[in-house]
């Protein structure tokens, strides 16, 4: 099924110049970029985005980190893209993520794990709506 997912290069990934590498991986895989922007997340948006983690001991750290510098927010479209993107990102903890995945290749710690991706169709819809206005999402038919 063709679906959309929300993918975000976190502040560590942006500062380490990994945006191009990550976009490249998704493009080469065959997914379609339908929305993208470099943005600064506000405290309010961070707390909303990570609402499900608000009781966790690391919540404050998570909010501080995600608001510490620009992120690159994207919406990717394609067949089974939600699950595929999670496979391409690797496990949440980079030290457990397989080589060949973004986190396995470039990350070391769970807090600074470079990339975020929606974990279900419900969270994809919620996160896309949280970060993008509908007029920021484009559509086109790839010819190749
Ligand atoms: P993400 O997929 O963006 O969703 C929640 C984030 O919480 C996760 O990536 C990790 O970066 C972060 N996280 C998970 N466990 C910890 C932890 N023990 N300490 C700090 N951050 C964590």
Automatic annotation (TrEMBL):
Protein name per UniProt: Nucleoside diphosphate kinase
Phosphoserine, modified sites: 123
Subunit comment: Homotetramer.
Cofactors, names only: Mg(2+)
Cross-referenced InterPro entries: NDK-like_dom (IPR034907), NDK-like_dom_sf (IPR036850), Nucleoside_diP_kinase (IPR001564), Nucleoside_diP_kinase_AS (IPR023005)
Compartments it resides in: Cytoplasm
Residues the entry annotates as binding ATP: 10, 58, 86, 92, 103, 113
Positions of transmembrane segments: none
EC number: 2.7.4.6
């Amino acid at each position: 099924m063709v679906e959309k997912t929300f993918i975000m290069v976190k502040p560590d990934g942006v500062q380490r110049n990994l945006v191009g590498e990550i976009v490249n991986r998704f493009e080469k895989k065959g997914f379609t970029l339908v929305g993208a922007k470099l943005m600064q997340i506000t405290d309010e948006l961070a707390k909303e985005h990570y609402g499900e983690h608000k009781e966790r001991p690391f919540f404050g750290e998570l909010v501080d980190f995600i608001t510490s510098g620009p992120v690159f927010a994207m919406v990717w479209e394609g067949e089974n893209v939600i699950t595929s993107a999670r496979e391409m990102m690797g496990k949440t903890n980079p030290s457990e993520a397989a080589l060949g995945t973004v986190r396995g290749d470039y990350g070391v710690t769970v807090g600074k794990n470079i990339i975020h991706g929606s974990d279900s169709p419900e969270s994809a819809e919620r996160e896309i709506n949280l970060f993008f206005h509908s007029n920021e999402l484009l559509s086109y038919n790839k010819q190749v």
